[in-house]
Structure formats: structure tokens, C-alpha cells
């Protein structure tokens, strides 16, 4: 296959799926990852996509936010490992906050029954998993429910969060990087996430490696505001060093 043909297929794949993964594309086309990276660089120069950590995103899909069912299937095994690693940060008793997100929802399902916890969340999936379980007191923040994420946003949630102090907050994100912090496409959701960060004594970010460098429209936290980043071992050493330079602790699940 000629390089131009491969690049055309990569551009079509980015438009269709919203993302190109370098490793997967290299295996599919039976070429070295460096070849795919050069292809993506050429397509970026043509204005067809934007390179991010581990691959690229189509320009016309930069504001696209997948539905929660699709996001939950993406890197599912890695998200499960991250959620299990986060259990070490859950206190034996106290207050925790679960942000909206597929990985935080997985953590909700893993919370041990022997903990005495008050859980605050704006995530309908997380609240649904915890509401009927003995031993947990669950507070669901009110507000408008975003159909894309099944999380509550806007003033009802913000007004309550201003009055709260929780021991540990667990956060999801659409993108994160040492330079741009933690970001999400929607300003309303970003505002609630920012208020949750402010309400938490300890802040733990749960994000798989594919989100590194995928900076989105609205920032809700600097990496310096995050105490611990739990990601997966797909994150390379250079990216880990960039994160550690922000003074955040990094755990690779």
C-alpha cells in the first residue's frame, strides 16, 4: 500500500471513529508505529486532524462528546484497573465525592461494604449503584441532567457544593495534560467539577492514558490542584515525568 492510500484511510477512520490509535493502526496496516506517526503528522499539516497523545482526533470531531455507553466500553479493562487502584484512597469512614464519569462509576460499584461512608455525587449511574446498598449514605446533587454524561450540572449543584467539605474527591476527565490541566468539552459540567475540586480536601484523578494530551475546551483544575493521578501503564515515561513535575503523585494501574 502506498503512503498516500494509507493516509487517506487514516483520515477516513478518524472521521468515522473520532480517533486514531497509533498502536492499533500500526498493527492493522502492518507498519511500524513511527510510520503511522509520520502519516498523522502529514494529515495534521493538511488540517485534517489534530495529533494527541497516542494518536490523533479528526478536526471536525474535536467538540464531539461520546455517549456514556460508548465511553464505558472504551479502554474498559484499563478503567477497571484504575478503579481498583483507587480503592486504596477510600477511607474506612468519612465523606467521599464521586464526580460524573465512567471510571468513577466503576469505583462506585467496587466500594467495599465494610466502609462507613457518606457519598456525594452528581452521577446518576454512581448514585443508582450505591442507593440500595447498606452502610452508605448517598447524597445526589440536584440540577439539570446532561444526557451525554448522566451527570447533574448548573446552579442547584453549585449552590450545594459551596457549602460542603469532603475528605476525598474522585474525578473523571475528558482530557488531561501537564500544560493544560484537567479539561472537558462542556462549560456547565466543568463548573461543577471545579466546585467539587474546591470542596475536596484530597483530590484524586482517575483517567486512562488515552486522555493524556487530549485537551478539551474548558479547564476545571490545574494538575497542581490534584494530589494523585491514577492512570494505566500505557502512559509512557516522558508523560509520567511531565505529570510528576506538576507535583502530583502518579500511580500506574
From TrEMBL:
<dbReference type="InterPro" id="IPR001034">
    <property type="entry name" value="DeoR_HTH"/>
</dbReference>
<dbReference type="InterPro" id="IPR037171">
    <property type="entry name" value="NagB/RpiA_transferase-like"/>
</dbReference>
<dbReference type="Pfam" id="PF00455">
    <property type="entry name" value="DeoRC"/>
</dbReference>
<dbReference type="GO" id="GO:0003700">
    <property type="term" value="F:DNA-binding transcription factor activity"/>
</dbReference>
<dbReference type="InterPro" id="IPR036390">
    <property type="entry name" value="WH_DNA-bd_sf"/>
</dbReference>
<dbReference type="InterPro" id="IPR050313">
    <property type="entry name" value="Carb_Metab_HTH_regulators"/>
</dbReference>
<dbReference type="Pfam" id="PF08220">
    <property type="entry name" value="HTH_DeoR"/>
</dbReference>
<dbReference type="InterPro" id="IPR014036">
    <property type="entry name" value="DeoR-like_C"/>
</dbReference>
<feature type="domain" description="HTH deoR-type">
    <location>
        <begin position="3"/>
        <end position="58"/>
    </location>
</feature>
<keyword id="KW-0678">Repressor</keyword>
<keyword id="KW-0805">Transcription regulation</keyword>
<protein>
    <recommendedName>
        <fullName>Lactose phosphotransferase system repressor</fullName>
    </recommendedName>
</protein>
<comment type="function">
    <text>Repressor of the lactose catabolism operon. Galactose-6-phosphate is the inducer.</text>
</comment>
<keyword id="KW-0804">Transcription</keyword>
Amino acid at each position: 500500500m502506498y503512503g498516500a492510500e494509507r493516509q487517506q484511510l487514516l483520515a477516513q477512520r478518524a472521521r468515522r471513529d473520532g480517533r486514531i490509535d497509533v498502536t492499533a493502526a500500526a498493527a492493522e496496516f502492518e507498519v511500524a508505529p513511527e510510520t503511522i506517526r509520520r502519516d498523522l503528522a502529514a494529515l495534521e499539516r493538511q488540517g485534517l486532524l489534530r495529533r494527541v497523545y497516542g494518536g490523533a482526533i479528526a478536526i471536525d470531531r474535536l467538540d464531539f462528546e461520546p455517549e456514556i455507553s460508548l465511553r464505558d466500553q472504551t479502554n474498559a479493562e484499563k478503567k477497571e484497573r484504575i478503579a481498583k487502584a483507587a480503592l486504596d484512597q477510600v477511607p474506612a469512614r468519612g465523606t467521599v465525592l464521586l464526580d460524573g464519569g465512567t471510571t468513577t462509576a466503576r469505583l462506585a460499584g467496587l466500594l467495599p461494604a465494610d466502609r462507613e461512608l457518606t457519598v456525594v455525587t452528581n452521577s446518576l449511574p454512581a448514585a443508582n449503584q450505591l442507593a440500595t446498598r447498606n452502610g452508605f449514605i448517598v447524597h445526589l446533587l440536584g440540577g439539570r441532567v446532561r444526557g451525554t454524561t448522566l451527570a447533574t450540572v448548573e446552579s442547584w449543584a453549585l449552590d450545594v457544593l459551596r457549602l460542603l467539605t469532603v475528605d476525598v474527591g474522585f474525578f473523571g476527565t475528558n482530557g488531561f495534560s501537564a500544560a493544560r490541566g484537567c479539561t472537558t468539552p462542556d462549560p456547565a459540567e466543568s463548573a461543577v467539577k471545579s466546585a467539587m475540586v474546591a470542596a475536596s480536601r484530597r483530590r484524586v484523578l482517575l483517567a486512562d492514558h488515552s486522555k493524556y494530551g487530549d485537551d478539551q475546551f474548558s479547564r476545571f483544575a490545574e494538575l497542581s490542584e490534584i494530589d494523585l493521578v491514577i492512570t494505566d501503564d500505557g502512559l509512557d515515561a516522558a508523560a509520567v515525568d511531565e505529570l510528576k513535575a506538576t507535583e502530583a503523585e502518579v500511580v500506574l494501574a
